[in-house]
């Protein structure tokens, strides 16, 4: 802290168990990559995972903190300069709505891995970066936040209008 | 005597089967067409909440619904999901400020839980029993609520409920319009629940949230994203 501006990286796995991600962000190489990019703090929400990140920051000066759950991660996202998230749609859209740069890491251990579909589609539209645990370091090193496009949130009005019309209600 | 009963059964069963087949065909043809009824009062709504992202998407729809048309509202979530119903309760409470009358809101919104067919990792043998329990429970809820409108967006919890509602239609005991809104997480393929409702033509209107998915499933509609 002091005169140096804090730039927090917030890592979230939601209610899942995603030790592969927690292990990677806890690795020395990734911490170095984040330091090089100018980040100062690493805050990890580790969910149901059993792997405990090391609080000691080794020879890097990245400040590392972690916790398991919190009722709302909105404040953590708001205070972050970069969010690294699991591929759950809740975390993805919460981060995009708050306009924060986002790297989504796909959990390859999930059996029905449809979640990567959403992350890949949004990455193709340049709303976020999509990575896998073993490619996260390259993604951090190569990312250019200026290429990200702001996400315009969708709305339920058109769907509700069609439902109303179907049921014979006047559409206002 | 035994022979008579047998002969009667021989005659009755084909008749019953044909009547049922005609009813199923009628319901399938009738689905997708607007319901005919008077709209003096609101429509009883069954809102099936999934979990996490599903619930967030569903609550976006609910918040857009005209509350005088879609009332009373019955929210249903899985017994093991303790996050979804509180979200709906918070939303319904927030309406009190808008509409004023506290008693009325409590009457207008009800919250229920339903057994799940199968938990993640459950063995197939025990899941036969739990599926049966979930189906019977769904049937009981549908008979109790007699919904006129059903909103669902997956996951599996909505299947026994939609199947029960469909059976009620076949038996002529009540009509409901089923709206299925596939989750935004489905970009290239439908979910299993979505695919089932689409293929069996159980949903009156079927929405997807990505245009490329609509091209793959032409009976689906695309009307933008919810999130």
Structural commentary:
- The complex is a heterodimer of chains A (172) and B (227).
- With 172 residues, chain A is an alpha/beta fold.
- Chain A has a single domain (8-166), classed as Glycogen Phosphorylase B (Rossmann fold, 3-Layer(aba) Sandwich), CATH 3.40.50.2000.
- Chain A is 34% helix and 16% strand.
- Chain A has 7 helices and 6 strands; from the N terminus they run βααββαβαβαβαα.
- Chain A has helices at 19-26, 28-36, 74-79, 89-97, 115-124, 136-142, 157-166; strands at 8-12, 41-45, 63-67, 80-85, 102-105, 129-131.
- Chain A has a 6-stranded parallel β-sheet with strand order 3-2-1-4-5-6, sandwiched between helices.
- Chain A is elongated and about 65 Å long.
- Chain A starts with 7 loop residues before the first strand and ends in a 6-residue tail after the last helix.
- Chain B has 227 residues and is an alpha/beta fold.
- Chain B has helices spanning 2-30, 52-64, 84-99, 102-108, 124-145, 158-170, 192-199, 211-216; strands at residues 45-48, 73-78, 109-114, 149-152, 177-181, 205-208, 221-222.
- Chain B has a 7-stranded parallel β-sheet with strand order 3-2-1-4-5-6-7, with helices on both faces.
- In chain B, strand 4, helix 6 and strand 5 form a beta-alpha-beta unit.
- In chain B, helix 5 (124-145) crosses helix 6 (158-170).
- The N and C termini of chain B lie far apart (66 Å).
- The chains are: A alpha/beta (172), B alpha/beta (227).
- The A-B interface holds A 14-15, 88-90, 93, 114-115, 117-118, 120-121, 153-164, 166-169 and B 34-35, 39, 43, 52-53, 56-57, 60-61, 63-66, 69, 149, 177, 179, 181, 183-189, 191, 204-205, 207, 209-210, 221, 223-227.
- Chain B: Pfam families: Alg14 (PF08660).
- Chain B: Its main location: endoplasmic reticulum.
């Amino acid at each position: 802290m002091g005169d140096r501006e804090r730039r927090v990286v917030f890592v979230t796995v939601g209610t899942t168990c995603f030790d592969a991600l927690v292990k990677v962000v806890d690795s020395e190489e990734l911490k170095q990559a984040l330091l090089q990019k100018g980040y100062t703090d690493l805050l990890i929400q580790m969910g149901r995972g059993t792997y405990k990140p090391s609080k000691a920051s080794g020879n890097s000066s990245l400040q590392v903190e972690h916790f398991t759950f919190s009722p709302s991660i909105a404040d953590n996202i708001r205070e972050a300069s970069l969010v690294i998230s699991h591929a759950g749609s809740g975390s993805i859209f919460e981060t995009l709505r708050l306009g924060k740069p986002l790297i989504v890491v796909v959990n390859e251990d999930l059996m029905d891995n449809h979640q990567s579909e959403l992350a890949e589609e949004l990455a193709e539209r340049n709303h976020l970066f999509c990575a896998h645990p073993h490619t996260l370091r390259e993604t951090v090193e190569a990312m250019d936040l200026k290429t990200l496009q702001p996400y315009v949130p969708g709305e339920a009005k058109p769907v509700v209008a069609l439902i109303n019309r179907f049921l014979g209600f006047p559409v206002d | 005597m035994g022979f008579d009963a047998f002969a009667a059964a021989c005659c009755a069963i084909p008749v019953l089967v044909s009547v049922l087949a005609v009813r199923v065909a009628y319901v399938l043809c009738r689905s997708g067409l607007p319901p005919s009824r008077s709209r003096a009062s609101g429509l009883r709504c069954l809102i099936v909440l999934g979990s996490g992202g599903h619930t967030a998407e569903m609550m976006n729809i609910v918040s857009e619904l005209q509350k005088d048309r879609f009332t009373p509202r019955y929210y249903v979530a899985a017994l093991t999901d303790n996050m979804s119903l509180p979200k709906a309760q918070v939303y319904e409470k927030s309406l009190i400020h808008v509409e004023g009358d506290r008693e009325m809101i409590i009457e207008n919104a009800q919250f229920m839980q339903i057994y799940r067919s199968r938990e993640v990792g459950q063995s197939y043998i025990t899941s036969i029993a739990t599926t049966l329990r979930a189906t019977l429970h769904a049937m009981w809820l549908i008979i109790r609520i007699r919904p006129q409108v059903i909103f669902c967006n997956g996951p599996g919890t909505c299947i026994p409920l939609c199947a029960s509602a469909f059976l009620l239609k076949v038996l002529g005991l009540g009509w409901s319009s089923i709206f299925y809104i596939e989750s935004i997480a489905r970009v290239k393929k439908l979910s299993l629940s979505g695919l089932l409702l689409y293929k069996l033509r159980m949903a009156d209107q079927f929405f997807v949230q990505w245009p490329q998915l609509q091209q793959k499933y032409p009976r689906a509609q695309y009307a933008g994203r919810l999130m």
